[in-house]
Amino acid sequence: MLVESIAFVLVGLVTGGAALLALPSYFRAARALTLGTALAGALLGGAVAHFCADGRYPAVAVAASALASGVLTSLLARPDLAAGRAPAHRHHPHRAGAHRRHRPA
Questions:
Q1: Is residue 103 part of a domain?
Q2: For residue 102, is pLDDT > 70?
Q3: Which structural domain range is residue 28 located in?
Q4: Is 35 helix (H, G, I), strand (E, B) or coil?
């Protein structure tokens, strides 16, 4: 389990680093938060896969570690705040009373 844990840590750091390098404008949170989330996701996903597979398939555990790390890291992505994106397509101001439907009497 020690070698697998080291592999999980490496997978988490690579996933977090790749996310920060590939899409830096999507991750407005602190770099430590992104790397920490990727690392925690890799360790948690790898440990769960290791115990579910009873330690027989370390490659499956490492793959599950990468998947969990990627999924949890993607939760931090904010493409709506990325540079070059105008947030004007969302949250249109409503006219007073335009959202209500009146039933004919």
A1: no
A2: no
A3: 2-81
A4: helix
